[in-house]
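quick one, 593 residues, struct below
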Amino acid sequence: MIKTLAAQIKQYKKSTLLTPLFTILEVVMEVLIPFVTASIIDKGINAGDLSKVYIYGGVMLVMAFMSLAFGVLAGKYAANASAGFACNLRDAMFANIQNFSFSNIDKFSTAGLVTRMTTDVTNLQNAFQMIIRIAVRAPIMLISSMIMCFIINAKISLIFLGALVVLGTVLVLIVKNATKIFDQVFTKYDDLNASVQENISGIRVVKGFVREQHENDKFVRASGNLYNMFVKAEKIISWNNPVMMFVIYACILLISWFGAQFIVGGTLTTGELTSLFSYIMSALMALMMLSMIFVMITMSVASARRICEVLNEKSDITNPENPVMEIPDGSIDFDHVSFAYKHKSDKLSEKKSDTDGGEEVLTDIDLHIHAGETIGIIGGTGCGKSTFANLISRLYDVDGGSVKVGGTDVREYDLELLRDKVAVVLQKNVLFSGTILDNLRWGNENATEQECEEACKLACADEFIERMPDRYNTMIEQGGANVSGGQKQRLCIARALLKDPKVLILDDSTSAVDTATDAKIRQAFAQKIPGTTKIIIAQRISSVQEADRIIVMDDGRVCGFDTHENLLKNNKIYSEIYTLQTQSGGDFDKPNE
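---
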């Protein structure tokens, strides 16, 4: 874990090294000042020598300014190093998440990743700053003060040594008990973030069903759980201060008593007793700082583990050593393919899958699609239609058999090339903040406005874009909140077309479009992109019946692959779906025939 985190210091190594260096110099100056103070009292004031007061006073003043300068430099470099370390951690996590396959992403909840990149990183940033500065300052100050105490008077210093033993024992007990609770605290943060995220993303549903009070209660529960855990931890940590103050004042009383006896006996001077008080106070304060460090590290260890989980997560889909850099055509071959989601059995899994780990979602899929064909896929919910499509663009890797595009196994292609040439419009359509043109150019960042307009005509998106006041420069709100579901789907189809794909997969991506527009889109595809292999996943027969061939899926298996007419005659599942969808007079927006 330490090696993983230390790798993110990178360009801030210089600041990380200079911080403890200036901290050590600061401590050296602070340790010498009481020693000089004793000389002022004993050799100057008590001896009545004013020149010695001026000399030692000047030396002390120089040391004080040097200590101040070293402290400022240490603070400056500590802030630079810790902020840079936190920045690198966030960058590294975000970059690694971008490389995750779908199966990697399934191991973490969205709320959990947000907590890791915010709260957990902040905890680690604070801990790192304390480690390179306070964790250097406190032990050096503690050891130096102890040495100076024993040099001045070993007998009185034994009182201080006893105080250290008491405080050390209490500190170990506090840290041991608090650590267990802090390990659980950040899981509660995930629950809190999940509640906020769900509420904001689904605010229209919440208001539509008048469930504001329910959501408030859910948030209060999550917030209350977090509160209870923190209060429990803080109750344990709160013992630190009273014990510390009790020991400090007990030390002062005992040292005052015995110091007075030694002064009367002539074995200790007034200046030495003054120095002893300074050193013992410095040492006890250093111990208090050490206790704060232990508390902070206790909190940050849980955060560090969670951050390392993300940093050490390796994508199970990677580029081959010598990837194929050209896809000749859009032919697709499934050779006895089997696939199962395994992420549910993973120890790090925070997000449950709908399928048990190891249970096959696709079983022995064996079929061959020619380049330029239009293929429909139909079947019940959960039968494996979307999974089938995800394997073509290698969003997941197969467990058995192989998937080929253009005659080559998809695992041999360069990932970026494959996903550029196999365009997928998923069930959950996502638009980003920006203009319509900005969103369209996700498909091709160099696309001209004319090319964007042409893609929108094919997707029948131009119809509503032309009615907008700023046309293609109309701003899309976050998540596409200012466009309807059907409009969002058509924009996503147009965006995919701009990639000029060899294979175009529409995963139920016209479900919010009326049948008339759906038919126009399919007709445009047939005329304008005849060489592109088109795979249309749909719930309604009308969306796929004009396809060259149709795949009928049931329980992860292909139970039919033929034309609409032949499937009606020979496939019981397909004919039942057709009858159910047409016996009431057709789709709701399609006139009776």
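The chain has 19 helices and twelve strands.
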